[in-house]
Amino acid sequence: MYRLSVGALRHYELLSSVQQLFVAQKPALRYNRPVIYYAGKKREQMRDHHIDLCGQIDFTRTEAMPLLARDAHFSFACNGCGDCCRGREDIVLSGFDLWRIAARLRLPPQIVARGYCRASIGTVSHLPVLRLAPVKENRNNCPFLTGDHCAIHDAEPLVCALYPLAQEISREGEVSYFLQPTGCGGRVIEAKVEDYLARYDVPAREQTDVRWAQTCMTLEDTVEQLGAQLSPVLVRRMQAKLWQALYFGYDYAAPFLPQLEKNLHWLDAEFAKLTEYQKKRNNASK
């Protein structure tokens, strides 16, 4: 199962004075594997091995965070301080998130990633992991936090749009949501799940997010098997091709999903080439 959860300052109709302050605090994604990925408590210096595609890896959803029906009501407290936008090192982006930001900035995705993100390979998933890089010179704030406002609010990552809800996507594509604890205090906001999601356009992107999650769940198994067969040099080539297919090989002026499908077909062919090349090397060494 693929879980995405966030802890961030999020706005609702009653908080019009802080409508631009919303960046994710606790992103997390979970696959159908024993490991659950979650960015739990705020940490100032989070290393790459603490983070995978599902955010911080040491989280387990408890009975205190049950799944919510879409017609269920929930409430949370927000004091509008914006502190959740600061000191974050766990805001993981999907390829679609990066594409949206690239379109907002009118820059190629790879340029955006180099300028605003930190890249690594997940120790659990063995897939590329891209997260926003806080600005040390600016109190470790999110790179897009300008004053008390998000400079890319209309292209915010899904983890930002969801808060205070969290998202789970099963291998079959079933999407569920649960409420995560905020601990912020302040004014209590009440909302219905489906209304809250619609207000921040989450349903409009749900199909794309499901496809991304299913792609990652499939690739996680494929890459683990392939990586065990390839030499270290070829593993690095495989990783470079994964970065291209999942994050960098996109035109921000064209729709994301058709490009993802095209890239995945290309990736299959490239994996086959790597496998064949490794076989030839193995045979030559006999």
Blueprint (SSEs and pairs):
Blueprint: E1 2-5, E2 51-52, E3 55-56, E4 67-68, E5 73-78, E6 92-93, H1 95-105, H2 109-116, E7 117-121, E8 128-132, E9 145-146, E10 149-150, H3 158-162, E11 165-169, E12 175-179, E13 187-192, H4 193-199, H5 202-229, H6 232-248, H7 256-284
Antiparallel strand pairs: 1-11, 2-3, 4-12, 5-13, 6-8, 7-8, 9-10, 11-12
Side by side, the strands of the main sheet go: 1-11-12-4
User: How far is the N terminus from the C terminus?
Assistant: 42 Å
**Subunit organisation of the chains:** single chain
Percentage of residues assigned to helices: 25-40%
Structural class: alpha+beta
The largest sheet is: 4 strands, antiparallel
Q: How many extended strands?
A: 13
**DSSP summary: helix tally:** 7
Q: What is the radius of gyration computed over CA atoms, rounded to a whole number of angstroms?
A: 19 Å
Q: Could you characterize the architecture of this molecule?
A:
- The chain has helices spanning 95-105, 109-116, 158-162, 193-199, 202-229, 232-248, 256-284, and strands spanning 2-5, 51-52, 55-56, 67-68, 73-78, 92-93, 117-121, 128-132, 145-146, 149-150, 165-169, 175-179, 187-192.
- With 286 residues, the chain is of the alpha+beta class.
- Helix 1 (95-105) crosses helix 2 (109-116), helix 5 (202-229) packs parallel to helix 7 (256-284) and helix 6 runs antiparallel to helix 7.
- The radius of gyration is 19 Å and the shape is globular.
